[in-house]
Amino acid sequence: GAGVSQSPSNKVTEKGKDVELRCDPISGHTALYWYRQSLGQGLEFLIYFQGNSAPDKSGLPSDRFSAERTGGSVSTLTIQRTQQEDSAVYLCASSWGGPGGSSGEQFFGPGTRLTVL
Amino acid sequence: AQSVTQLDSHVSVSEGTPVLLRCNYSSSYSPSLFWYVQHPNKGLQLLLKYTSAATLVKGINGFEAEFKKSETSFHLTKPSAHMSDAAEYFCVVSYISGSARQLTFGSGTQLTVLP
Hints:
- By secondary structure, chain A is an all-beta fold.
- Chain A has no helices and ten strands.
- Chain A is globular and about 40 Å long.
- Chain B has one domain (3-114): Immunoglobulins (Immunoglobulin-like), CATH 2.60.40.10.
- Chain B contains no helices and twelve strands.
- The interface between A and B is medium-sized, with 27 and 26 residues.
């Protein structure tokens, strides 16, 4: 019973470089979420995928952020031209599905700690 | 609009004494509520959830929470703290936004357990 996995666990990059963060959700989960957790802050919603529907991108902080989900499974969050304020822990979560069949419980990965120098 | 307020950013207790982490919520309809725990350098783990069944919810590791609609509260308690309980705790409300189940997180309460 594998949980949600994320890679890399830590990423250090230089300002202006692009980074890609990967998330492998729990098998069978149709919903996938990305969050950002900055130091001392709660979780900030970034983007949501549900099955083959168009993603909810309402939480993305700028057009430098994008995400895709291939084949309804693995997701990649891409940050272009990274800035120091992008430094945070990026968390991925998955769940059973949309509002009809779930209480909303999400299963979280261990996160990727991004440091932009 | 849905929101949660965690009333204490830091709570410190002695080992063996009770734990109380306070949470108030705001929701336009009957909410689903959760408590998650985050240990250092670990992912978020679900402690317990309320989904309109019993108002007293029991979770893992001896934690429980009581849903009080009249007070719009969902406080987390444990009768006797253990050193391993030291972590950050998040109160969370779930709501429907379009086609999605979204979560709104509180700002977190850092629990310190003193020997």
